[in-house]
Specification:
Layout (H helix, E strand, L loop, with lengths): L13 H18 L1 E5 H20 L2 H10 L3 H14 L8 E8 L6 E7 L3 H17 L20 H9 L16 H10 L20 H6 L1
Antiparallel strand pairs: 1-3, 2-3
Helix pairs in contact: 1-2, 1-4, 2-3, 2-4
Length: about 220
């Protein structure tokens, strides 16, 4: 028996659960359609329909009750000016839940919580959206960082200047020839420097010692 089973706890504390439901209802009134788990949607539906009933009264007390639940003042304004007049002749059943998919990770059943609208209201909303899209003018794309977003064509004058540059105007690069070891040794010998080549002595180099010279000493 389900004695005293009033609501779903949603694995949360009382304060966390209250804030969660207030967030869901605020998003529902702002966007008229949200996606969440089915368990959360069933709990949020109870609070949402209660607030719509308050808004249908359209007095100061009901407005204060709704403002105490909803986080955004824009949601309160939209509830009283747009949503409540849609259900002036409807007694309850303002929302519906549509099951959509199984969430990956925890296999939670997902669903869409949305406001119920008649066919005439849906057609009016569709027409309003189409008019808004037609009225918007496409803005030119801004260039990205450091001017990489859009390529610009080079002016004709700059192209003519680059063509006018000849080979004579270009600076000549210094050519450095790599000398071989023998050439470097010869240059050092002529200058009186030490010859570092193996097995040869120059004017400025020390005489090579042999075994005979070492014995004579």
């Amino acid at each position: 028996m389900r004695h005293r089973l009033d609501h779903r706890k949603l694995s949360r504390t009382a304060s966390h659960r209250k804030a969660l439901l207030r967030n869901l209802v605020t998003a529902l009134f702002m966007h008229e359609r949200i996606e969440t788990t089915v368990a959360k949607a069933k709990e949020a539906r109870r609070l949402a329909e209660r607030l719509i009933t308050f808004a249908k009264r359209n007095n100061l007390h009901s407005r204060r009750l709704c403002a105490a639940v909803l986080f955004e003042p824009e949601a309160v304004q939209r509830l009283f000016d747009v949503i409540a007049p849609l259900y002036a002749t409807r007694e309850g059943g303002y929302t519906r839940i549509l099951k959509t998919r199984i969430r990956l990770g925890d296999a939670g059943q997902m669903g869409i919580l949305e406001l119920v609208k008649t066919r005439e209201q849906k057609d009016a909303d569709r027409k309003r959206r189409e008019e808004a899209e037609a009225a918007t003018v496409e803005q030119p794309k801004k260039r990205g960082l450091f001017g990489r977003g859009k390529k610009e064509e080079a002016p004709a004058a700059a192209a003519a200047d680059t063509d006018a540059v000849t080979e004579k105007d270009k600076p000549k690069a210094k050519t450095t020839e790599k000398k071989s070891g023998k050439v470097r040794a010869k240059d050092n010998a002529d200058k009186g420097g030490r010859n570092w080549t193996k097995g040869k002595t120059g004017p400025g180099s020390a005489p090579k010692k042999t075994r005979g010279s070492q014995r004579g000493q």
